[in-house]
Amino acid sequence: MAMVCLTDFEEYAKEHLSKATWDYYAAGADECCTRDDNLLAYKRIRLRPRILRDVSVSDTRTTVQGTEISFPVGIAPTAFHCLAWHEGEVATARATEALNTCYITSTYSTCSVEEIVAAAPNGYRWFQLYVYRDRKLSEQIVHRVEGLGYKALVLTVDVPYTGKRRNDIRNQFKLPPHLKVKNFDGLFQETAGPEEYGIPANTLDPSISWKDVYWLQSITRLPIIIKGILTKEDAELAVEHGVQGIIVSNHGGRQLDGGPASIDALSEIVDTVQGRIEVYLDGGIRTGSDVLKSLALGAKCVFIGRPAVWGLAYKGEEGVREVLQILNDEFRLSMALSGCRNVAEINRNLIQFSKL
Known about the structure:
Structural class: alpha/beta
EC number: 1.1.3.15
Catalytic activity: 2-hydroxyoctanoate + O2 = 2-oxooctanoate + H2O2; a (2S)-2-hydroxycarboxylate + O2 = a 2-oxocarboxylate + H2O2
Family: Belongs to the FMN-dependent alpha-hydroxy acid dehydrogenase family.
GO molecular function: (S)-2-hydroxy-acid oxidase activity; FMN binding
Cofactor: FMN
């Protein structure tokens, strides 16, 4: 079967993954309103294409944190890639290296950060981080990834507690015995208590606050990008605390149900930041025109979560490459059909605001 669009990969994954695994990846919080709205919000946005602009040559390249990538789509941090494909994150890393874009490695990887670097030594990578009650755990992993050449830290800030994902509760979701959260291998041996997503329950620190951003800056020289901001107030605080970037994100609709779609929160954040730091987005990207709309509304780059996992489920590294390639091709086409020859020509004039 020819894979033509990202939905084809979704259908394949739904058919071929176990129910518990599919439910885990697909899950949203509570009634899944925010998860679903992430997709629907793009369909409400209309483009204003310009014509007769000579789009015979187009260039999709951009930069993130000063590094050039081939097009403005990276891989968002998602957990447990080995559930979808036996090579897991190693395959994801190779695919993003091959397409020359950014891969944000999840703390909750089923391959270690060392294995990922060994598999794709020239890949451009950021590392997604949680702050734990035991700060030493967070500190250890920061120093490990800094030494391995990861280029930025992505601090996820929207999980003081895990959202209520009904199907995971119904399925009593657990990692199968042959898989583990590799980055913490051996660190939790002494605990025999309840587990949540592969590590002991209550490991995450709900007391995390802005002062932890300063703490993180004190232990690393890497740029810090905050993931999980949805309001202009928090965007302003992020700038004031000296971070280098923001990922506008609602955690794929897996945390607070009833919050805004990521794309609906983007404009107010871009307007507040006013170019002082880079703004990125994840949540709901399924087509090249979704990418174009995000950039027109001010995102520097977008990141895909679930579609990368569907690509893995389809054919490992090759599947992730295909997903990225389809998005790249669709983005290039949408750009050309809108009259944009390069990403610098994409701006808000492309968006029909009366329809928002």
